[in-house]
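Troubleshooting log. The previous structure file for this entry was overwritten by mistake, so regenerating from the original sequence record. Sequence copied from the archived sheet and checked twice against the printout by T.R.
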Amino acid sequence: MNHVQYLFRHGLTPDKIRSLDVANLKITHLDYSFIYLTEDGALTSDKEQAPTEGDILVDEHVRPVLEALADLRKANPSLSIMLSLGGGDRQQSGCFRTVVADLDKVERLGRACGQYLQEFDFDGIDVDWEYPENEEEILQFINLLKVIRKNIGNTKLLSSALPVGQVLANFSPSHVSEINGLMDFWNLMTYDLGLFQNYSFVAPYDTANDDENYGYSSLYGGVAQMHEIGVPYDHMNVGVPSYGKLWREIPDLTVADLGHFFGRKFEGPRARTLHYRMLEDVLQEPGWNELWLETPRCPIYYKVQGDRITDLIAMDNLQATAEKCRLIRSKGCAGVMMWCLNGDNENYDICQVIASEID
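Regenerated output below.
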C-alpha cells in the first residue's frame, strides 16, 4: 500500500529532510507543498516572485530543500517525490481559475511542470486546486490534467487532492472515467469536514445516519462516495489528518451536553488548529478528561469548572488513526495519505501507526 505524506514547506530545512527515516516509516511518496502558480501560468517557489525569464522560478531558500529531497530519493530508490501545486488559499484558487480559462497559460503551466521535474529529477505532480466547482471548471480541470500529462510523460506520476462531499458530487461518471485515465491517484481529503465556527470534528470515521452534526461527510462516507461515482478503490489514497480543533473559554456548554453538542454554532472565537505535535504539551495542563465517542470513532478531551465545560479538543488519537487505516486497507484502497507530516510529533507516532497498519 501507498503511504503518502504531504510535506508542508513551513519550517522545512535540508537537515530535517535528510534525517527522515522513510524506510522505517514505510513512506512511499512525499508530496512537497507547495509550488505556486502565477496568473500567467508559470510556477514559482515564492509567491512574491515570478520568473523573469523562462517558465519556472526556484528561490534561494527553497532550492536547498528541494535538493535535499532529491538526495533523500537517491538514498531511497523506492521513494517517490511529488510536487504539489497550489493549495487551499484564495489567491491560488484564483490563479487556477485564471490559468485554466486561457489555453496558452495552460500550455505554459504544463511546460513548467515538466521543467520542475526535470530540474530535480522528481517523480510527479500533484494538483491541489481547491476546487473545481461547476461543469465548466471540471472540464477545464480535465484539460489541465491532459496538458500536464503530455508534458511530464507517462512514466511520471500525476495525482490530485480533492475534497469529498458536494464538490465530488459535481463530477459525473464520464468526468471521472476520463480523469481515471489521466491520473495515477486521487488523494481524497477526508478531513476538514466540519465548520470551524461550529463544534465539529476534523475527520470523523463515520456519521450517525448521515448526521451532519459530526461533519458534512466522513472517511467512510467519502470513500463510498468516490467509489459510487466511478473511482476504483485502487486509485484512492485516503486522507487522515495530523491535527484537530481546540476551543478555549467556552461560554455555552455544560457537562450534560457531552457528546451531544456537535453541529452547534460556537458563540466564542473560532476553533484553533491543534497539531498532534502540540497535543502532549497541551494535555500536560491540569484538569483534562478524555471521552471516546463511538460514532465518529475518536476522542474528545475536555476541562470542567463546576458543571461547565471550559476547554475542548476534538482530535484523532493513535487508536482513531489505526482504525481508519484498517478501514482503508479493508476496502482495497491504494493507500493512506496524511496532511501533513509536519504535524506529527518528533517520534513520528502517527506515521509509525500508519506504517504498522499498512504493512
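The chain has eleven helices and 15 strands. Archived copy saved in two places this time.
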